[in-house]
Amino acid sequence: MSSQLNPGAQDLLLVIDVQNDFCAGGALAVPGGDEVVAKINQLAAAFAHVLLTQDWHPPGHSSFASQHPGHSPFDTMQLAYGAQTLWPDHCVQGSHGAELHPALAIAHAELILRKGYRAEVDSYSAFYENDRHTPTGLAGYLRERGLRRLFLVGLATDYCVHYSALDARREGFEVVLLLDACRGLDSNGSLAKALSAMRAAGVEIREDAA
Fold it and tell me: Do 136 and 113 contact (CB within 8 A), yes or no?
C-alpha cells in the first residue's frame, strides 16, 4: 500500500491524535479507532518526514462537560471564543488516555506537537486553537523545513483531522486526506459535512491510501 504513494522530499505524513482515549476503551473512543494504527505504521515507513499530534489537556479544561454544571458530554455551549462541543474528560496531561497508542511504531517521527494545553480554549486543529486566531506555530515549522504537501491520517476525521486539513489549506499547503487511515465520530452527519467542506477547500481525498 504505502509503496505506491511515492512521497517526496517535500511531503510529510501528519498523524493526528492516535491516542488511547480516542481508541477502544478510551474516554472518547472513535468507532474503529484502533483500526488505523497498522495502516499508519505501514504508511509511515514510506515517508522520510512524519509529524504526530497529541491532544494534551490540563485537568479541568474548559471543553470538558464536567466543568459546566447542567451540561452533558456532546452538548454545545457558547464559550468566550464561540460555540464549543463539550466532551467527556479526555487526554488529560500525563494520563494513560493521553498517551499515543502503544502499537503506533513511528520511531523516525521528527516532531510531536501537543495541542489543547491552554485551559481556556480547545484546539481541534494542528495549526490553530479553536478561537481560529491563535497559531500553534506548525505552519512556520513546515515552511522552514521546506515541506509543502501534507498527507493526513488519524482521529477523528470529522473533528481534528477535518480542522487540520482546512487550516493547512488556509496556510497554502497541498493536502491529501488518506481516508482509510482515518476514522470519524460521525455525530449528526458530521462526517459527510466534514468531507464536503474539505473537498470544497481543495483537499484531495483518497479513499484508498495505496
Answer: yes
What pTM, to 2 d.p., does this model score?
0.95
CB under 8 A, 24+ apart: contacts of 204-207: 204/174, 204/175, 204/176, 204/177, 205/176, 205/177, 205/179, 206/176, 206/177, 206/178, 206/179, 207/179, 207/180
The gap between the terminal CA atoms of the chain, to the nearest Å, is: 4
Mean of per-residue pLDDT scores for the chain:
96
Which of 120-125's residues contact partners 24+ apart within 8 Å by CB, and which partners? 120/62, 120/79, 120/80, 121/62, 121/79, 121/80, 121/81, 122/61, 122/62, 122/63, 122/84, 123/55, 124/159, 124/160, 124/162, 124/163, 124/164, 125/160, 125/163, 125/164, 125/166, 125/167
pLDDT tens per residue across span 15-48: 999 999 999 999 999 999 999 999 999 999 999 9
Q: Which residues pair with 82 in a beta bridge?
A: 79
pLDDT in tens, 88-100: 999 999 999 999 9
Residue 18 contacts residue 101 (beta carbons within 8 Å): yes
**Residues catalogued as catalytic:** 17, 115, 160
Report residue 185 as a C-alpha cell: 465520530
Instruction: Read off the pLDDT of residues 95-140 as tens digits, 9 standing for 90 and up.
Output: 999 999 999 999 999 999 999 999 999 999 999 999 999 999 999 9
